[in-house]
Every structure is written in C-alpha cells, then in structure tokens.
Amino acid sequence: MIEDSPFVAAAPVLVPMPAERPYTYAVPAGMRVVPGSIVRVPLGPRQVAGIVWDGAVEQVDARKLRPIEQVFDCPPIDRAMRRFVDWVAQYTLSPPGMVARMLLRAPEAFDPEPWIEGLQRTLLVPDRMTDARARVLETAEGGLAWTRSGLAHAAGVSATVIEGLKAQGVFETVMIPPRPVVAAPDPSYAVPELMPDQNEAASMLRANVAAGEFNVALLDGVTGSGKTEVYFEAVAAALEQGSQVLILLPEIALTHAFLERFQQRFGAKPGEWHSDLPPRMREKVWRQVAEGGVRVVAGARSALFLPFRELGLIVVDEEHDPAYKQEDRVFYNARDMAVVRGHIGGFPVVLASATPSVESRVNASQGRYARAVLSARFAEAALPDLKSIDMRRAPPARGGFLSPVLIDHMRRTLEKKEQSLLFLNRRGYAPLTLCRVCGHRFGCPVCSAWLVEHRFRGQLVCHHCGHNERRPEACPECGTLDHLVACGPGVERIAEEVVTHFPDARTIVLSSDIMGGVRRLRLELEAIANGEADIVIGTQLVAKGHNFPNMTLVGVVDADLGLANGDPRAAERTFQLLSQVTGRAGRTGKKSLGLLQTFQPDHPVMRAIVSGDAESFYQREISERERAALPPFGRLAGVIVSAVTRAEAEGHARGLRRAAPEASDLFVLGPAEAPLSLLGGRHRFRLLIQGERRADMQGFIRAMLANGPKQRGSVRVQVDIDPQSFL
DNA sequence: AGCACGCCGACT
DNA sequence: GTCGGCGTGCTC
C-alpha cells in the first residue's frame, strides 16, 4: 500500500466540525504530511486537530489559505479507517467532518506519551548498609528499572531511603517507557473444554478468522448456552495470527463481569473504551491502540472509531441491542457499521445474540451471513418455567397493579427464602398526573410529553427532555386543592404496593435515576446477588447480563408495555426484552418461574415467550415485515424533523410527497406512536420514507431538506436500513 | 460543533 | 447607561 504522497504545498484536511468536504491548508516548507497524518490547524479563532485527507486539494482563495501548524508525532490514520469515515458519512448523510470528529476524541493522545523517570542500579555500593537499604538492593536485584515510588513500596521503605541511595550514585536515573494500560492477552492461557455444539460453532469461527477475509457469522444461542466462550475462540484465533480485536458491548459501564471473564480466559484484561473512562485513561488507551500495544478492546459503540493499526476481528455482542444506535449528531447503528468496517478492512465480523435482530436473521437465512446455532440442550435445566397471567381473568385489587396470582407466587418465593424480581420498564411513580376536578393533564412545557411523577423527589419530570418542576398542591388550571390524581404505574408505585403486601420483606427499587451513578448501581447489583434483598423492582437495567443466583421468580408487571407504540419493531423489541428479563430467573438449578402480566395472552410475543418457540415468532415477524415492506425488506429511512405539532409534520410530509410523488409510502408517526428512543432531546415527529433503492431515498431526503423547515439544522436524518445491501 | 457578532429586556 | 439572552453566520 502506498501511504506516501509526494510533497505538496497544500493539503486537504478534514476538521472536526460539520464540514461537507476537507478544507485546504498550506503545508509550510520542510513539513512532511501524508494522508492520515493528524495535524494541528487554525480554524477560525481556535486551533483544532484535523486529519490530512485523500484526494486533490480544492482551489481556494489564497487569502483564506492558512498553514498547518504542526504534524503530531502519532501514527497516521490508515487508509481503511479513512475509507470507513467517508463511507459512514455518505451512508448516514452526515458531514464527513462530524464523522472525523468521532475519531479525534482524545486530544491529548496525539502527542506521544511521556516517558517516565525510573531508577536503575549502578555498580556502586552504598557507604553504609542498613536494613532498609538492604531490602531496597534486594528488591532491585534483577537490574530492571523501577519507579521511585514503586521501588519504595515494593521494598517497604520510605522514599527518603531511595533518595539517599540515589544521592550516593547507587541508583541512576533512566527514562522508561509508559506502562501499558493492559497486559498482553494470551490466547492459550485457559483453553476451555467446550460442549460438542460449542465446539462446532467455535471451529466455524476459527475457520472464518483463518480465511483472513471479510465474512460475517451470526452466533445465535439462548442464555446459558455459552456464546461468550465460543466467540472467545474466534478472539484467540485472531490473536494467534497477530491481529487486534474489537469486542463491542452495548453498555460497557455495567459489564464488570465481562472483563473478569475475559481475564479468566486470556490471563489479562482487555482495553476498555466507553464514555465514562477518565480522560487520562482515555488518552492512554487511544494511543496504545494506535501503536498496537493494546491487542483487544472491549468497548461501547464509539470504540468503532478507535485508530486500530492491525484490526482483524470485530465481535458485536448482544447485536440486537438498541443501545448500538447513536441518535445524535451522526446517526448510526454500530452493529451495521461494524459489518462495514469488516468489509473495508477485509476481516471477519461475529454478531452474537440470544435473540438476534430480524435483520440479522434474514441476512443469515439468505446466506449473506453464516449462522451458528447453540442449542439450549445444556441450558435447559436452568431455564425458568414461563406463564402468562391473563389480567382480564385475574385483575389486580382496586388501585393496585399486581395480580393476586403474582402476589401469591411472591409470597411462596419469600417463604422459600428466595428472591423475586418485578420488572416494569417505567421509571418514577406515575406516568401521568391529572386533576380530578377539571381534567387538566400535566404536560411538559418544552416538548409536550406527559410529565412523570417522581414521588420520592416530590417532582414532575419530563423523561424526554429532562424538564422538571415541583409537584404542586393545587391544579394550575382550576386552582382546586388536593385533587390531583396519579394515573398508571411506575417502579416507585409498584414498590409502594409491594410494601403494603409484604411489609417485612427487604424491597429495593433499581432504576437509572438512583443517586450515586454507575458505581452505586454496581454495588446495589452486587448486594442483590449476595442475597441482601428479597424483592427487587426494576426497570430494564436489571435485564442486562447480571446473575442473581437466588432469583427464582420474575414477574413482568406490564408485559404489553411497548407493544402499542406504532414502532415497526415493537413486537421484536418486546420479545427481546422479555426474553432477557425472564432469563434473570433460573440461573441456579433451582426450580424457577417467570410470570407475564398481560391483557393479550394470545399475542404472538406472549405465545413465543411462554412456549419458548422463538423460531415461529421470527418466521411470523419476517413475513409480516416482508408483506409491509418494512426493514430489512423495504428500504426504510426515517427523517426526524423538529416539528412540534402533528400539523407541522404533516406539512413536511405533503411537501415531500409533492417533491417526490413516487414515494407512495410515507408515514408520519406522532408523539404517542413514535418510539421515544429514536427521538432526540426535543419532542420530534418521525417521518418514515420508503423507496426501493438507496438513490431514491437520498433523493427524497434531499427534497425534504430543500422543502423542509426553513430553520437550518432542524432536520436530522436517520437511515435505518441494513447496510449489507450497499456493500 | 464552537465562537463571534448583533440586537432587545432587567439591573449590579 | 451596562450585562446577557440566544438568533444568524462563518470557519480553509
């Protein structure tokens, strides 16, 4: 590969802002840059880091031209990564500069890590020997360099002793390279004994890695079937052939357990990458990934934009997880972009999930992806019994939300001294508050969603934009005192109900708004795993990969929640979430039970969960999508506009229909139906546009941009299609 | 995305 | 009379 370019007097530089194309900068005499060089350039009043890009420079007014200030002493971004940036920009219809910005997010890492001062034994001996000095000399015997504090600590002496020895010339100062953030993983550290079907899947993945070319495998195995062990074999194979590996995880901040597991297999932790990483660590990881010191990264979606130099495998764990979607600035799905990255880099990608997305299932069944299925055979003993509770036949007591059937099972579980989990995917106390006298409903003044009551905090909170206000005593509309009524349940309200039934049980509520952040959450989860709670009431964060060995009952308070929101993926998402939640019970070998409270026990999702027949559910879902030409069959794109009213959104839709009459299928989803997860901070409507070819779609979107709202920057685009068809 | 410029309300 | 809100425009 030719990375060198002839010396040029001007160079295209991609700067980290919404620039549609690289800007042109002068290259001062004597400065040498190549495509991929990271450079410091003036931009308006400030200095920014940019990347020297490919292609010819654009002719630009000589008065505008400013010089590159500095070329960072940093490995250049390789050609594959540059092509990836262009591809992502083109596919997501975002400015390339914004994509480049995602890979320039460790500003201090562009300068080499400073070497640190170390001490090394000389041939001199100290004038007098003391116990402390003897210990120091013994510790430093091997001739290796030590840091001063490290040596003092290891020898159990104070730094003064070391200083004394150094002053006598017994130690001399040497510069030592910065410590690696993680030790090298060893592929043969603890090779596991695999079950026969695991073995078969692992050989397939190993063969994919050995082939050394782009391919995608969908690793499909129910909870407890040992997926992780299987893809670790692919990781081992990639390490053996000298490649770097990226493992994407949907929410790394809570996956402490994963890092431990990795260490048990490979004898060292993987490099970690996520938004909570302290800045200092961030820089080290970025730099060491670029230099090749870090061989494996476990990271959140943003890790896709790390500057790997020898990337040879990407594993996307829980590939169906919606957390892979980035929904601001550059809209992308990291699972899809991982496939693209593999295609560009010419290496394999593994998608793993117990409940694969419909897109990936279809790609597998059409032969674009290989599929490895791990049967439930070895996990079966650990799977809970699943039943639905028909809420029409077994309704809750007046004012309550828990069916007597569920309460009864909770009582029995308590008597056996085992744990129960109640799952409700709704934070706070009640999702809607209204005045019993005049019917006034509390809406968010900013974005028009209903305000959720948080009783512990005494506040009404908008879950959409974060707006909050004190819960008043009187109705702001009619002024009547004490007639405000809470409608519907949130986890806080369920906790209240639980306490009335089981006043002596240790009850805990887990939701993302607990105080103390991730650390506190991790402690709470540990406490629960240690049996320090009898009843846990939680939102979806309890569904993620945590093991509670004594949890034998899972009750889903409102299994229908999320089915009626008009999202084409509602059924799929609900199935995935319920599978995951009910999987929290029964990791014990004890007899365990999952109960779904539902008004629609015959709904395909409930039937699939209760019967365990995922295959027919997926078949049904696939043919439904095909019939309605929804993804992955229809070429569906969503345009998100900051329309606050339905009328406004309809107006945009009309403009678009005029501009592109062939776009016969165009949906406008209002606030009630639109999946909130897809919408940004402000309350927005979503338009879904279909077209047969990507070119059509882009045409529609351009028309939208041209005919759409006048305000600049108010149109955001989400291209929500499987990129496989565009590779 | 930042950051400056610019034009209208409450105030040390 | 100023300080400061965010609307508009520009960055090689």
TrEMBL record:
Cofactor (UniProt): Zn(2+)
Catalytic activity: Couples ATP hydrolysis with the unwinding of duplex DNA by translocating in the 3'-5' direction; ATP + H2O = ADP + phosphate + H(+)
Annotated PROSITE patterns: HELICASE_ATP_BIND_1
Residues that, per the record, bind Zn(2+) 2: C444, C447, C462, C465
Top-level division of the source organism's lineage: Bacteria
GO MF term list: hydrolase activity
Protein name, entry field: Replication restart protein PriA
Domain (Helicase ATP-binding) ranges: 208-374
Annotated source species: Mesorhizobium salmacidum
SUPFAM superfamilies according to UniProt: P-loop containing nucleoside triphosphate hydrolases
Positions of Zn(2+) 1 binding: C435, C438, C475, C478
Function: Initiates the restart of stalled replication forks, which reloads the replicative helicase on sites other than the origin of replication. Recognizes and binds to abandoned replication forks and remodels them to uncover a helicase loading site. Promotes assembly of the primosome at these replication forks.
Family to which the UniProt record says this protein belongs: Belongs to the helicase family. PriA subfamily.
Enzyme Commission no: 5.6.2.4
UniProt KW keywords: ATP-binding, DNA replication, DNA-binding, Helicase, Hydrolase, Isomerase, Metal-binding, Nucleotide-binding, Primosome, Zinc
Cofactor detail note: Binds 2 zinc ions per subunit.
Broadest EC class assigned to this enzyme: isomerase
Subunit structure: Component of the replication restart primosome.
